[in-house]
Amino acid sequence: MTFRTFLLGCMLAAGLPGLAQTRPVPVAVAAAGDLRGVLEELRQGFEAAHPQIQLQLSFGASGSLAAQIQQGAPFDLFLSADEGFPQQLQKQGLALAPFPYATGSLVLWVRRDLGLDPARDGWQVLSSPAVRKIATANPRTAPYGRAAEAALRQAGIYERVQPRLVFADNIAQAAQFLQAGTAEAGLVSFTQADNPALRLLGNLWQIPAGAYPPLRQAGVILKRSTCVDQAQAFQAYLTGPEGQAVLARRGYGRP
Questions:
Q1: Same domain membership, residue 19 and residue 99
Q2: Per residue in 7-34, pLDDT tens?
Q3: Alpha helices in the chain (DSSP H)
Q4: What is the 3-state secondary structure (H, E, C) of 179-192?
Q5: Considering the entire predicted model, what is its pTM?
Q6: 54: in domain
């Protein structure tokens, strides 16, 4: 028996104390629905560069996630679709200083088989009787939903289309409504509308940025976290060259 074999046997008998130290440290990330897909890509790059850290992702509406955090949910890092919820958590003493990481954009998506082209006709496509349901996120809990409502009001058509609005819990679920055919049109994030399935099924129009309040997206590390150093490592990756390159490729603007 070699010394190495003997040492491994001792570690196994003692409950693997040496091997346990090599397990990745889990970092629980609560993320806005618009980040579904892009954050999974970011995780792959980050974990390849930091094998000692493992990101555990949970997605939802920013307001719902903030409420969960206020109620004690054990997240380490919160990535919101706006600046307001992170600032609120900081003021309540639950989080460190917020950090901006991206600027989002809103699009109008319409099923292609309706023969409508929002890139050509803009808001006029919503006047078509073929558009019976319009999906977006709940404006009470989702920043993209608030942006959608603001854009419709700015266009002067909110009251006209309100009876046809279908609200999802978050913007990723609103995109799922479009893919499933629950709605013929929707106001969703560019990132969600730009996925291959929705590109195949529909046409989109990027709504002018001045039509809604800027979607400045920010994150915070929670004070209750037991792995602040690891969460800060992901913050640095997200706001650094590698993370920003992925976000830009997925349609986000710089913070």
A1: yes
A2: 444 444 444 444 445 799 999 999 999 9
A3: 3-13, 17-20, 38-49, 62-70, 84-91, 118-121, 143-154, 158-161, 171-180, 190-193, 196-201, 228-239, 241-249
A4: HHCCCCEEEEEHHH
A5: 0.88
A6: yes
